[in-house]
Amino acid sequence: MISYFRSILPSRLILLIFLYLAIRLPLILLGIPATRPELLFMLVGERMADGFAMYRDVYDNTAPLSAFFYWIIDLLTGRSYLAYRLIAAALLLAQALIFNATLNRYQVYASKNYIPALLYLVMGSITMESDMLTPLLIGNTFIILSLPYLVTMAREGLDNSRLFIGGFILGLAALSYLPLTLFLLVGAFAIIFFASSTFRSFLLMLCGFAFPFIVLMTYYLYTGALSYYLEFQLLQPWHLKPTFIVPPADIIKIVAIPGLVLALALFSMASLPQRLVFQVKFQQLMVVWLVVSLFVALTRTEVSAGSFMVVLPTLGYFSVFFFYSFRKVWMLNVFFMLLLIGVVVLRYRQWLGLSSILSVNESALLLPENPAPEISGSTVLVLGDDISYYEHNKIATPYLNWQLSQRHFGNLKQYQSVYEIYQNFRNEAPAYIVDKAGLMKELKYKLPSVFAAYEPTQTTAVYKRNR
Questions:
Q1: C-beta separation of 48 from 59 below 8 A
Q2: Residue 356, by phi and psi: left (phi above 0), alpha (psi -120 to 50) or beta?
Q3: What's the pTM value of the predicted model, to 2 decimals?
Q4: Per residue in 284-307, pLDDT tens?
Q5: Backbone phi, then psi, for 47, in 5-degree steps?
Q6: H helix or E strand, kind and range, residue 440
Q7: Domain segments of the chain: what residues?
Q8: Which residues touch 26 (CB under 8 Å, ≥6 apart)?
Q9: Is 413 helix (H, G, I), strand (E, B) or coil?
Q10: Facing residues of 381 across strands?
Q11: Residues paired with residue 379 on neighbouring β-strands, in sequence order
Q12: d(Cα 455, Cα 296) in Å, to the nearest integer?
């Protein structure tokens, strides 16, 4: 089967898309359980659609361009897990096809083929997190779009504006997911390998990268949100001690198949004969891409199998070397079929009754059952990390991300923090408060004009505003 995709005839593209939809669509239509990240994205989009400014009125560290996408989706569909998952599936398909088209256009292989897109889509469907429209998935799209503008040969009369555009697109990727700023290193190596004037070219790319940030910060300056943006997003410290929201052993189970393919591909690449100069330089650039993408994946605040989605372009690129290294085609077809079966079994393990054998603990990603069924269709504020109370309710006040909300609730001994809480509640008082942090007693004492109106209900830690 893999040999069928060694050609770029239209029939191959049709089969490629059909195979991808056959893997993904049944999972979407069967109904994957609601997840915490998706609910968070919906809350951000919903809050912005209600007219509240990101960072100033929504305390969260979602990147601004990703928040913009969630805002647009909420305007069009409202809260819809189906819409988010269909868009995520379409985005992954677009990434694979654009990346494959770039490789074929620049003739980085001996012959044009669809194998990179095939491996990109199959391996990109191996985890349930690929069904989520995450900032990393959005940002990775811009990384792929920037590649043709960074890989620029030194020709007479070359239009250097391409490097500015490439840097600009990298800036959009960083505005979608800030750690993707590290791909400036990929751009720098691309300039070293391909550009004629290294320093001037790097300045062009850097100016392009900075341009969208300058425009955005100017907008936030005039809307009074610049200090919030700097505090919540741009100047957040990098944490090199990530938290594993999925146990490392379970992450290994999921990434074992793509990891095996990547290892075999790198080994096969080393044994291939020397090729054209451009192809060798492009290969070196993709090695840098692989190192940077692994660093981005492993230094996320929360690491899971979905963190490795950023490695998919390099996996797709290097896989061709493995699938061209065998002379016996039947062996490649058997190997690919085993890979495909492994991905399908892993994704459909629940419906195949294999959950006990292939157990993967992804409970930290899933939303629990409604913890307060008596609260529905109302406004709620949760003093704590549990956002599941918002699944059937709307958030009131800016305090979405509890960690960022500590700038106020973690400093109740300071007058300024108490005053800002008062201002936020005066503008927008929720009907219910869920006190997971045990702060209501202190809040009632320090702000009786606001919190004295909230009385405890029959549900533990839930308070209802009576006046």
A1: no
A2: alpha
A3: 0.93
A4: 999 999 999 999 988 877 888 888
A5: -65, -40
A6: helix 440-446
A7: 2-347, 379-465
A8: 348
A9: coil
A10: 433
A11: 394
A12: 46
